[in-house]
Amino acid sequence: MNDIIIETQGLTRFYGEKKVVDSLDLSIARGTVTGFLGRNGAGKTTTIRMLLGLVEPTRGTSTVFGEPSLELSPETKGRIGYLAEGHHVYEWMTVKESGRFQKSFYPRWNQDVFDGIIGHFDLDPKKLGKHLSRGQRAGLCLALTLAPEPELLVLDDPGLGLDTVMRRTLLEALIYVTRQDNCTILFSSHIMSDIERVADHLCVIDHGTVRANCSVDTFRESIVKMVLRFDGEAPAAPQLPNLLQSTRNQSDLSVVVANYDEAAAAALQKLGARDMVQVPMTLEEASVAYLDESGEKNFFLSRTRSKGGTQ
User: Fold this and answer.
1) Is 300 within the bounds of a domain?
2) Same domain, 73 and 108
3) What is the block-wise mean pLDDT of the chain (311 residues), using blocks of 10 residues?
4) Residue 189, by phi and psi: left (phi above 0), alpha (psi -120 to 50) or beta?
5) CATH number, position 271
6) Do 197 and 229 have their domain in common?
7) Is the pTM of this model over 0.85?
8) How many domains in the chain?
9) CATH number of the domain residue 50 falls in
10) Which of 23, 120, 157, 244 could form a disulfide with 295 if both were Cys (CB 3.0 to 4.6 A apart)?
11) Which residues contact 99 (CB under 8 A, 6 or more apart)?
12) Are 190 and 78 in contact, with CB atoms under 8 Å apart?
């Protein structure tokens, strides 16, 4: 059995003169939950649509379950669940009718999963789609996506536009169902706390190029914030190779560095601070720093961690 579910090589897409995805090389292993991160316009949705065969690449290749994305067989499509932003439903169908209609297209259908998610969102099976709130539409779409028990689940910002309560409800349902089986998930979101709750792996895309591909723990450990305190006015930060951010506030100097190692520590110690401490960072703080336009972009966080950084 092939352990690589998604693989791309040199995947590129232009819209006119604009390069949206740039020579993207990516592989996603079976059973992983991969958070797909990046700013607006980074190329996440275009990449997802190319993976699913909905958009043709300008050049390069992508495969899902070993099949070219543009030639996915009906059997393979039946193994994929796709939940896009917007949560579109059939407005003229009731919740129950939507489930019955969706069921007719799939060889597998778990009615208990469908009913469980509908109940979790407190949906009336007799209610028409056009009368559902945004959160209820999200719940119905999630039920329709998960009931066929997909082996690969692709989520493109499913919590976009939902309030905090509904987003948490959606995540709870998602976590409960997908953890029951060895489901592979690609989860794109702008909300870092959502990614942190469900993902064990990260793929960070920036200007259409993969900038990080590693575990969540490796990413968080590789982005280090150091605060230096001086007796007088703080000096400027030294020219560290992987400096992401630096901030001076009177006698304090804060720096955020990727792949922090002994050389970086020595360079900071030479500044002569009376105190130098590492400050914990959340995943959101680390990712914002990593994608900061002012930061260096000539390094890459990979999945293998070695002493003093990543390789």
Assistant:
1) no
2) yes
3) 84 90 89 84 87 94 94 92 81 93 89 89 90 86 89 83 72 68 82 78 84 86 91 88 87 90 90 92 85 53 41 36
4) beta
5) 3.30.70
6) no
7) no
8) 2
9) 3.40.50.300
10) 244
11) 111, 114, 118, 143, 144, 147
12) no
